[in-house]
Amino acid sequence: MNKTKMLLMAVAALLLTVAAGCTKDEPVIPEKPGEEQPEDEGKDEGKDEPDAPAAMWSNEDLAWVFDMEALPEIRVDVSLDEWNRLLKEYDRDSNTAEYIHCNVEYKGKGEQHYYQDAAIRLRGNTSRRRPEGNGGEMHTSNNTDWHHCHFMINLRKYQKDDDHELHNLRKLHLKWFKDDSDYCRELYCYDLMRRFGIWTACFSSYCRLWIHVEGDSQPAYYGVYSMLEPIDDKFVSRRKELFDGKDGNLWKCRWGATLNYNDINNAWMGFDDDSGANYVYEFKGDEEDFDAARRQLVEFSRNLTQLKGEEFRAWITSVCDVEFLLRTYAANVAVGMWDDYWNNCNNYYIYFNTTDLGTYKFFFLPYDYDNTLGTSSQCGVQSDSGRQSPLKWGDTQKNPLIGKLLEFDDLRQIYVDALREICSKDRDLLYYEASMSRIKKWHKLINSYVVNDTGEDCKMEDRPASWGNHHEYRLLDTNPDVNFFRVKAAAVDKL
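The chain above was modelled as a monomer; its predicted structure follows.
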C-alpha cells in the first residue's frame, strides 16, 4: 500500500473517531424535579444512552430488570408465623442472615411475574434494622410501627427451578435510601461507572415495595427503594468472558480489610455460612475451598506489601489489569467515596479468576455507594470528600494497593487522565449539567411515590446526610462553591 493511500486511511479513521467522541445528546433540565415536559420534548433524550467506550459491557437480562427509566412494583406476601420468625431472629441476633418463606409478585415493563415460596431476609451492616417495632414485640396487625430496612429477595432459595427466576436473575438486593434525601446517590454512582465502562460495577435501578403480612387489611407500602444486582457467584458467571473465568475465589471485604500483609494473618476471616458474621474478609465460596482461598489471598497481600519498585510493578501488572483498576478507582474517587478501600479499608469485593496460588488475575469490585456525592466525614486522612486531593485519598502505608501504583509516573498519569475524563464537559459523566439533568429526570420518575407507610424518608431534599461534616454540598444547585460535581471538578483541575 502506498504512503498516500495509508495517510488518507489514517485521516479518515481519525475523523470517524473524533465524530464518535463528540456526539452527545443535549440535556433537557426541568425547572423542578416533578415538572412536566411537553410531550414532543426530550423523547430521544429519555433513552439517555451512556457516552462510554465502545467496549462497554452490557447484558440483555440485566438491562431489562435494572432500567433507570422504569419503576417496577414488588409485593411480598408473608404469613404471620414467618414474619414473627423474622422479628424473633432479629431480636436473637441483629446480624441474622436467616431467610423466611414468602410469595413475591413483580410487575414491570408490561410484565407480571408471581413466585410462590420465595424467600426474603434482612441485609445491612451498621444500617441493619428491625422492620417493625423496637424489639421484643411481635407483629401488631393494622396498627404497625413499620421501619425502613434493607432486604434481600431470593426467588430460588426453596424452589430450584427456572420458574423462580426473573429474566435469569435469582436474587434482588433492595435498599432504602438511608441518609440520602436526594434519593439517588448510590444509583448515580453505579450508573456513572457503567457509563465509564466499569463492567465490574453492579446494575441498579429504582423500584417500589409493598409488604403484606397475613391478617393485615392491606399491604404496607414501604416506598421507593433502590434495586441492586447482588455480587455473588452469578454476578461472576454473567461476566465470565471478561473475568476470563468463573470458578475463582470471590471475597467480600469489610472494615479493616487493608490487604496489608503485616496484619492480614490476624484479620477475622471466614466463609459465608449464612451465620450473619461480619468477617473482615468473607469468602463467598464453599467451606472445603476456604483454606486454599485464604492462602491465595495471603500470598497476594505478601507480594502487594513486600515487593518494591520494578519488582512490584512487574508482579502487579502480571496479575492485574492495572489500567482498568486505576480507571475504576478514579471513578470511585470522583464520586467522593471516602468509606472505601484506600481511605477506610472498607466496602469492596475482590475476585481472583483462578484458584491457583500464584497464577490468576486479580479484580477489584466497587461496592456500597450510598455515602457519596458530598456526604462526607472526618475519617482516615480525609475531612472533605469533595475537595480532598485524589492523589492523597488514603494512607498508603496502611492500605498499600492504590498508592503504590501511583508511585509510577505513567500509572499515575493513567489515573489522573481518567479523573479528567470523568469530569470533562465533553463527556456525559460527572459534568455538573449532565449530572443534574439525569438526577432531575430520575426525581421526576419517583417524586410522587416517596411518601410511604413507615413515615420515614417521606420528603426529598437536596442535602447530604445530617451526620456528615459538610452540610453545604448540593447536587441540584449550580453554585460552584456548593455543587459537589463542580467542587470535585475543581479538585481534579489542580492535579
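Residues 70-175+201-234 form one domain.
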